[in-house]
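User: Can you predict the 3D structure for this chain?
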Amino acid sequence: MSKIWMKALCAVCGAVLAQLGGVAAAQEKTTTITASSNAGKMMAAPATLTREARLAAKPLDSSITIGKVKPRELSAEDKAALQAAKPELSDGGAPNASADDEARRDFSDEWKTMEQDQR
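Assistant: Here is the predicted structure, written as structure tokens:
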């Protein structure tokens, strides 16, 4: 099986196990909220809305719900560094010195075939 499929399978299994753990924890600790209980009294809105109530609902104003976004203040040093910065490229890294040895060890059959073709 390829590594991608193995990772996907592990991710799916992990998600299933996490959900089963949550279900088990929920089954162990169940509470009932009644209208006379404190939690029931604190609930301002009903758990379900009618179609008319959903259609009459107005969308939330995002500027109120998330607040005002403040721009980041740059220090004088940061501004100077930003203005003085020039785009550049860096050189590539050195090749792996042990690449041939690893290839001989990991792909011995292919390496032998390649050596015979070069003769």
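The chain is about 60% helix and 0% strand. The radius of gyration is 31 Å.
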